[in-house]
Design brief:
Elements: H1 2-14, H2 17-29, H3 34-54, H4 60-84, E1 94-100, H5 107-118, E2 122-130, H6 132-142, E3 146-150, H7 157-169, E4 177-181, H8 187-193, E5 197-199, H9 202-214
Parallel strand pairs: 1-2, 1-3, 3-4, 4-5
InterPro entries: Cbl-bd_cap, Cobalamin-bd, Cobalamin-bd_sf, Met_Synthase/Corrinoid, Meth_synthase_dom
EC number: 2.1.1.13
Domain B12-binding: 92-215
Length: 215
């Protein structure tokens, strides 16, 4: 079984969407644990690709292709995870995740969303370049507890503050936990804008969700 995980990882590293589809279909057909396939195959691949990019061994187009392949794999596996109760039956909680207005970088968001799903949360991904209104509308629609907003540009960090401020204007600030993340963000910035949590890595984001939901 480790072979299929290794194959998935390599397909992500190669940015080969067709191969990802082929291997994910194999996971589905052979009833292999979908959460394990996400964590040990798809996520391992994108994490290694990210490390290569940081080290200058991979280029942005490589990362983008890997991210697209990851997204395709997750879209195939997410319904299986939900249906099989691989997340442990009832979801731990509901999370609305997205990139803030002006931000179109979704690799980090996709990784965080994948890990949250694998950890047992029901994740509603509203995509990129989303205003505060969209985060709240989705959270209200699905009954989410957490709003997770990513910003990968210094110029879009203000849109994270806008979400917190918008919740206040609607008298809904206490209803939702707001988590922020992204390259230029920090704990100091989270404190400054009044967010509930800041995560530097996808793993940290999941651990913080566990804390926020049990509060």
């Amino acid at each position: 079984m480790s072979d299929i995980f290794e194959n998935l990882k390599e397909a992500i590293l190669d940015g080969d969407e067709d191969l990802v589809v082929e291997y994910v279909q194999q996971v589905i057909d052979e009833k292999i644990d979908p959460v394990a396939a996400i964590q040990n195959g798809l996520i391992k691949g994108i994490e290694e690709l990210g490390a290569r990019w940081k080290a200058g061994e991979a280029f942005l187009p490589d990362v983008m292709m890997g991210a697209d392949a990851l997204k395709t794999g997750l879209e195939m596996l997410d319904p299986i995870v939900a249906e099989s109760g691989a997340t442990g039956g009832e979801a731990k909680g509901k999370i609305v995740i997205g990139q803030v207005a002006g931000d179109i970088h979704d690799i980090g968001k996709n990784i965080v969303g994948a890990l949250m799903t694998a950890a047992g949360y029901k994740v509603y991904d509203i995509g990129i370049d989303q205003p505060a209104e969209s985060f709240l509308a989705k959270a209200e629609e699905v009954g989410a507890q957490i709003i997770a907003a990513g910003a990968l540009l210094t110029t879009t960090m203000a849109a994270q503050k806008a979400i917190v401020d918008y919740l206040k204007t609607k008298n809904l600030r206490e209803k939702y936990k707001v988590m922020i993340g992204g390259g230029p963000t920090s704990q100091a910035f989270a404190n400054e804008i009044g967010a509930d949590a800041w995560a530097e890595t996808a793993d940290e984001a999941v651990a913080l969700c566990d804390k926020l939901v049990t509060k």
